[in-house]
Protein 1
Amino acid sequence: MALSTLSSAGLAVLRSYVLLVIYRLTFHPLARYPGNFTDKISSWPLIYQCYRGNRHLRILEAHKKYGSVIRIAPDTLDFDTTTAMAAIHRDRNANVRKGAWYKTVDAETGTFSVQTVIDRKEHNFRRRILEPAFSHSALRIQEHFIDNNVRVFLHEMGKDVQEDGWTTPKDFSQWITYFGFDFISDLAFGSCFRLLQSPEHRYLPDLLKWTSHFVYYAGYLPFAPLVRAVMGTSIMNHVPSQAARDTHKYYLEAESKLGERSAAEEEAWSSGKEGRRDIFHYLFRTRDPETNIGLSHEQLQADSGLLIAAGSDGVAVTVSAALFYLLHNSSSMAKLVHEIRSSFATLDDVRNPQMNRLPYLQAVIDESLRLAPSVLSAFPREVLRGGLNVDGLHVPVGMTVGVSGYAIHHNETYFPDSFAFRPERWLGDGESVSLARSALITFGAGTYNCIGKNVAIAAAKLVLAKTIYAYDVKAARGKVTGGGGPAAGRGREREDEYQLLDYLVAYRSGPMVQFRTRNEK
Ligand code: HEM
């Protein structure tokens, strides 16, 4: 009897699932859009791709096969055109809001960061509070904090010199990640993690990696609300997933940094001092001009977690990709070396405003941002009542849309020979350059674009230019590691393409490199 009840319940579930599949393939509002069969009928392939880190590869593959608009999940479309980028992301009045996936990112803290807040009015408020910390005048002061960390980085890179004058091999991606964490903690909180100098906090990059990985796929799970309900509770310490436990630890770390910084600011405030002009200095003191309200402790906490994540890995991805491609392309390396070494008389001179006037350096950074965007796949935007017109198509309310960086950056209309590293495509002011510029989405676009873009570019340029000024660099054992290969998996066959794992932020390893103090002539 019990068995027959169970089997009829099973049959009922199966029947409703079959009906759902039929609906998704026939009467569903996105039924007519092309895409892989499995993606049309279920969200699980997308979740699995987020888990495996190959979502960007599968999306590019589908665009190459089906065209500029593809269905990547039953309710989700991905586009790879500049017109879609304008309609969905760049247009500040686009009829969309951030998708429900964002709710999982900060579920640990119980409140949203500026990036994950969904309500538009609330986002405008959070953004207004952040703006003074990212103004040009703030950046001029902050460059000094970045430079201090570049100095430490260079010192570490020059260590362990062998008899032939070259250092022992170093995993550049690992060291530049340490730099990323150090400069952003210094810049945000005024207390550097000191990963470059000491092993004590070197568990942090892995912590962040597994946190990103976890929230990335967990946010798309059909039972994500349940996951969110337990995040931030002590249950997380007992769940069998290491990644889930790490997420909890990561936020505790960010909270402790915030606590230290807040105490220092209060001390400065009570003794009438100006205080250190780092990012949190502005965040503690800024009030919304419209309401005179500042950020609550919880909001500051969520933003501290975001700043460490956004600042550290983005810069690290860009600079390691730049070095990977420069080592693969000796003529580009030679041009960059010449530009940097002939523009400055000493290492200390390598700074702004002169550094910003070097066209080839800027082009190398742009090309690295294109080939290795640290956000590889689209952040979801949910269409609101009334629908959204994209590329002549009407997308109805409730559907999710986006433009994925890795896909549009390999659209041959905007980037011919798109897998080739060619900084020259960014030089001059021709039509092809403005077309390329209009298709670069590494920092997002529109209302929710990256507020830290100028900081990121300044840090990436400074650390790359100073490294190239101070050292000759070569691939360890004559082989540039970090690329693909025949056994690396589908979409990862190219040896001269820097390989990235799409775990919300892009993860990477290599190139292994050696440094030699250069002979100054
Ligand atoms: C190469 C480095 C970086 C890249 C590629 C990058 C990329 C992005 C992208 C794509 C977004 C939009 C996210 C979305 O649509 O949900 C974003 C937002 C954001 N980024 Fe960055 N970022 C970088 C560095 C930084 C740095 C250095 C900081 C801070 C110092 C920063 C702070 C932020 C903040 C606060 C937001 C949220 C803005 C908002 O929602 O209004 N980022 N970033």
Protein 2
Amino acid sequence: MYDIRQWRHVFKLDPNKEISDEHLELICESGTDAVIVGGTDGVTLENVLELLARIRRFQVPCVLEISNLESVTPGFDFYFIPTVLNSRDKKWIIDLHHGAIKQFGDMMNWDEICMEGYCILHKDCKAAMLTDANTELEEDDVVAYALIAEHMYRLPIFYLEYSGSYGNPRLVQRVKQALKQTQLFYGGGIATEAQAAEMAQCADTIVVGNVIYEDIHKALATVKAAKR
Ligand SMILES: CC(C)=CCC/C(C)=C/CC/C(C)=C/CC/C(C)=C/CC/C(C)=C/CC/C(C)=C/CC/C(C)=C/COP(=O)(O)OP(=O)(O)O
Ligand SMILES: O=P(O)(O)OC[C@@H](O)CO
Ligand SMILES: [Mg+2]
């Protein structure tokens, strides 16, 4: 399924983490709508290429979420490009993007590119620390970022990121109610069927990451729960 707007559940695989062939097959054949390859640290061309080749044995749509320029390679179905809206450092909002487009803009296939407006809310996660995200936000601040994403920047995706910790469903629901066009991704701390079902009610698409490496069966159970 290549219509991102229909995606309800995606797995995020970290190229910097080990996964066995058996577990990778279970993930790719799980019925998830797509697999995103991405992580904050230790993402290299070598480990991205290795994971891409292994995922390509299956039919599942495969996305590279770009975290650095060195690890970008052809062969993915889509490229998701994060911009961290609540970063205090404009490097993570626009500067890296400006440098990349200056260098590669004339050879990009824009149909494969999808921008993600991140709002990172877990202060201790790697992505928050790397990008110096301001996580001390009121609910109204978060909704304001969502409205900026939709109405000012017209971003296709607004991504509420709680990586490593389960977020606040009430806030996710509030953000969802504020968005009309922009697709709401929620990711962070989903480790049970109940959590997957709850966040799938609040967001358009849920992203399941770390539990893949902690308990594969719990990870697999999130797929059905999200689609119920
Ligand atoms: C060959 C081909 C297809 C060419 C295309 C041309 C090309 C080079 C296009 C690139 C164009 C472009 C504009 C690129 C952007 C460049 C860039 C580096 C942007 C910055 C991205 C950014 C803001 C990164 C910050 C970190 C971040 C938000 C990462 C997302 C992943 C994430 C949040 C992971 C969660 O953390 P995790 O690592 O899982 O944490 P744990 O390990 O603790 O679990
Ligand atoms: O790893 P977890 O905590 O499941 O979060 C998923 C994803 O949002 C990370 O970018
Ligand atoms: Mg992770």
